[in-house]
Amino acid sequence: MTDVAADLIPTRRAPLEDTARQFAERCAEHAGDHDLSGDFIAGNYKAMKSTGLVAAGVPTELGGGGASVRDLCEMLRIIGGACGSSALALSMHTHQVAIPAWRWHHQAAARPLVEPLLRRVAAENIVLLSSGGSDWIGGSGTAEKVDGGYKIKARKVFSSGAPVGDILMTSAICDEGGERTVLHFGAPMTAEEVTVLDTWNTLGMRGTGSHDIMIDGLFVPDDKIPLRRTAGEWHPGFQLIATMAFPLIYATYLGIAESAREIAVGIAGMKPVSHRRQSTAGRMDTALAATRMGHEHMIAAAERNAPSEQSVNDVMIGRRLVEENAILTVELAMELAGGAGFYRKTGLERRFRDIQAARYHPLQKEAQSEYAGAMALGQPVGRIF
């Protein structure tokens, strides 16, 4: 399998948008091949590292690119238009960088805790994996208390980038005094107790390598657990995660929707104009505009730098708007393109399948509606997830 060229000219000092466009042009050449075979985009990670994309969100003072959340969203939007798998996988690493970077900038007391990890990302180009989708507020896996720490047993699903990850940012549940407590920690992917299972065979996003990860008896010392929280309840740490992570993740889907629109317009331009075709194109562009507005709403909530119940609500309302309208945009792009969109060579059917993944990140529709309704009516939201 051919990937993005390993000798892609490093552009660490170039504007992030230019670097993202250069990367996107190269990985677009092989996105269809990865989709067809289901092969992981391993070679693309080499280019992500060589061009500074992996360290883009690390503060410049710590050796990284110093990109803002808005800049990182633009990076992922551009890449998403070319290769959804590359953008989604990178978004999972990027949000795990953006969260400690936010703490470094805004929480002075947290600097000693997060700075070593951020410096490693910048200096070593380590890749962080997320198990957030499989854990979320409820948590998963078990942590057994032993002398000096905990023994972890868990199976984490949807861990994008698993084949090349260095640290899995994850959690497990222990019973402390009759209360279910979630322990957060980083699991080294090189540990013999950590195994990547070959499970990723899916409808779309087929190159992300989002395999299950099995943790069987990993020892985590007490001093390597930076966060403890009650299982099944929103914690301020998760308000930060939700506020920062989802604008980045959903930038991928905006990019996919925009690229589907461009493909469809190009195909439709080769056909006779009709009122019906114009109507379809108009509905498509309206849905795309709603997608962009929803995503801007998410970014604006993150840029307030005030993680809270309200920021979570705003981000999740935007997330719902992006999900529904991005999917609708691509559906209408398929309709506008007609039968040509059914062929793999146009790239539309891949985008149609990839966009479906927008349905599955938290908060999904029912939970988001309940959360927003509780906020509107002044009711507690601590256990709505």
From TrEMBL:
Q: What is the lineage of its organism?
A: Bacteria, Pseudomonadati, Pseudomonadota, Alphaproteobacteria, Rhodobacterales
Species per Swiss-Prot/TrEMBL record = Salinihabitans flavidus
Q: What Gene3D superfamilies does the record point to?
A: Acyl-CoA dehydrogenase/oxidase, N-terminal domain, Butyryl-CoA Dehydrogenase, subunit A, domain 2, Butyryl-CoA Dehydrogenase, subunit A, domain 3
Report keywords, A-Z: Oxidoreductase
One Pfam family named in its UniProt record: Acyl-CoA_dh_2
UniProt xrefs under SUPFAM superfamilies? Acyl-CoA dehydrogenase C-terminal domain-like (SSF47203), Acyl-CoA dehydrogenase NM domain-like (SSF56645)
InterPro entries under this entry? Acyl-CoA_DH_C, Acyl-CoA_Oxase/DH_mid-dom_sf, AcylCo_DH-like_C, AcylCoA_DH/ox_N, AcylCoA_DH/ox_N_sf, AcylCoA_DH/oxidase_NM_dom_sf
Span of domain Acyl-CoA dehydrogenase C-terminal: 253-362
Q: Which residues form a coiled coil?
A: none
* Annotated GO MF terms: acyl-CoA dehydrogenase activity; flavin adenine dinucleotide binding
Q: Which domain of life is it from?
A: Bacteria
Where does the Acyl-CoA dehydrogenase/oxidase N-terminal domain lie? 16-104
Q: Under which name does UniProt file this protein? A: Acyl-CoA dehydrogenase
